[in-house]
Amino acid sequence: MTDTPYPNREPSTAGEPLLQELLATAESLRPTLGSGFRDEMVNTLYREAEQLARRAVHTRADRRYDLDQKIDQLVTSPIFGLPIMLILLAAVFWVTIVGANVPSQMIASALFWFEERAAAWFTSLGIPWWITGFLWHGVYRGLAWVVSVMLPPMAIFFPIFTILEDLGYLPRVAFNLDFLFKKAGAHGKQALTMAMGFGCNAAGVIATRVIDSPRERLIAILTNNFVPCNGRFPTLIMLATVFVAASFPPAVASFAAAGSVVLVVLIGVFFTLAVSWALSRTILKGEASAFTLELPPYRVPNIGRILYTSLIDRTIFVLLRAMTTAAPAGAIIWILGNISVSGISLANHIAQFLNPLGLALGLDGVILLAYIIAIPANEIVVPTMLMVYLGTGMMTDLPNLGMLQSLLVGQHGWTLLTAINLMLFALLHNPCATTILTIYKETNSKKWAAVSVVITLGLAFVVTFLTASIARILGWVP
Amino acid sequence: MSTLKLNQPPCETCPANARLAQMGLKMDRFDRVVALAGNPNTGKSTVFNALTGLKQHTGNWPGKTVTRAEGGFVFNNVRYKLVDLPGTYSLLSASQDEEVARNFLLFGQPDCTIVVTDATALERNLNLVLQVLEITDKVVVAVNLMDEARRKGLEIDTRSLSRDLGVPAVPIVARTGEGMQTLLSTMEEVITGQIITHPRRVQGPPEFQQAVETLARKVETLVPGLPNPRWIAIRLLDGDARIQQALVSGELATLMHAQQQADVRFSQKIALDGRQ
Description:
The complex is a heterodimer.
Chain A: H1 16-32, H2 37-56, E1 57-59, H3 63-75, H4 81-124, H5 129-167, H6 169-183, H7 190-197, H8 201-207, H9 214-223, H10 233-244, H11 250-281, H12 303-338, E2 340-341, E3 344-345, H13 346-360, H14 365-373, H15 381-391, H16 401-412, H17 416-428, H18 433-443, H19 446-473
Antiparallel strand pairs in A: 2-3
Chain B: E1 20-24, E2 32-38, H1 44-52, E3 69-75, E4 78-84, H2 96-108, E5 112-118, H3 122-135, E6 139-144, H4 146-151, E7 154-156, H5 158-165, E8 169-171, H6 180-192, H7 206-222, H8 229-237, H9 241-248, H10 251-273
Parallel strand pairs in B: 2-4, 2-5, 5-6, 6-8
Antiparallel strand pairs in B: 1-3, 3-4
Helix pairs in contact in B: 7-8
């Protein structure tokens, strides 16, 4: 009956025979109560609570409660629940993509205009070219990229996300997905911790403490990274906007972009379930345990608090974190791009070295180099990648975001496959440094922290390699 | 003790807090321990912050607070340590947050437990109240969010609730401070024994009753004076590893002993202060 073994402690000697007798009695009495004893106890509790509440609560006009129930019947219904969820998700991404496009371009042109002016001013003062280059074309450019591609989508996405969270929609999402997790041999509450992972994977990992069984909790921890977090959403949205949308006619471009982000999220959920299933049948064997999930009442969101949480706690927090890693990343890229060995820059050397692997994955050497530089924070992968292209002189013109797609396609052989695989890689690759550290702290084991990296990175390689190979075999790309 | 300024004049402008002094984390000694239990999102932390003057972060993710927060306040010259337990829906499972809450109620043996409930969802909240009543007698139920309930057209009959539960139920609005004074004086009366509680215990079928009784008697023989042998018996019947371990290691007896020592100390203090 008990899952955990007795600890090896010194028993109190005084009551030893009494104690043994007590435990033996408990063992012998337990079968007389029948197997449904525990359920019966829980049911009695619910019945009594209901009775007490009926006597103590009098309703004058219960319209609001009715409304709550009606909404729940709809959003958690077996037929409409999942479609409503998907439509809501797509709507959120669509609004973000459409709304962020113009501000992103405006911020980018303003910040890069300033870079040119500042660099020119430095030069006119007679400051050595390498100081100007390091500061303005390195550090500053890194920051400018991060701000222009990340700030607008975050400022739109996070408030909407926080409203959904405040309304109490996330537990409903968990409710809708519960049956899938049960089938995967995982805990139903994992759907909840997964939903929290959309906010932040590290928070999602900590949230797994609500899961009773250590086995199921470990599964939830190891798979949390498969949902894109706040830090990775801007990356995905940006890729969708610049690369996927541009491959479609303008009339449907924004819908295609939103659809592709939804697809990526669904792929993430699929991998969460698939890996959970695989884990619960291999190294973490066991059956799914039963649980009760409470659906909290809908509360009218508090606008002030939402703006505060989403803009200060989330947007500014993520942006600052991205900027603190982007500045050194920009500096490293500039150095790699401007130190040459036998006439070719270091960045080019490394990119060429990584290129065969990159091509096999449907990516290229520059993208892999960007991933290596961006290990401390996933947020800055795309900005880093663009900087490597720009900073190494591989892309000489400074494009606005709209021209980026045609330049990458024109000059660097990007295809739709490259964009799709980049999104897949962004979804699947290893957790950020913070999350890895959190996994280590929560499991208290270097082994499980390492396993989380191996699983995610391994899958990222396998999946992108497969999509690239299939696309090539079918002749979609050269 | 003199540093505590126990007899400072009451704040003139805030009559609701006349006998309350928020101590935050400044208190290293205390006379009584009070636990705050309740479902997530019922305003437990609001109550905690209102009493201690601390600003504990209130997260909206259920299960985010899995450790307990502690703070202090002084009410009627008695120093209280207030322990904010993680919000849980139940105390039956073995998840970490629930275990933190349950172990504190059981082994920390607070002098009083305030269960904060959401007036707009009383039925779900009473589930936990009933489970807390199984563990400890000294309970005050704070029916919070009364303003929200009123807006929704709900009337809560706290008198009938008190009668049914066998412990006092106090309507409050923690955000505005409404009812907090009554909550504190009720808590005081429960601790001092001016209010004797008769907590409602879930009955269950006869064979269950009998098994529990048999086992409870044995628990009492093993650890005489234990305040809740019945609950221990139920957990043993359910095969609860944590409780078995507490029995085997003698943890139960040790904690009970420590609590009795604390009681002696407190009586001596009262004798010295010349109160009662």
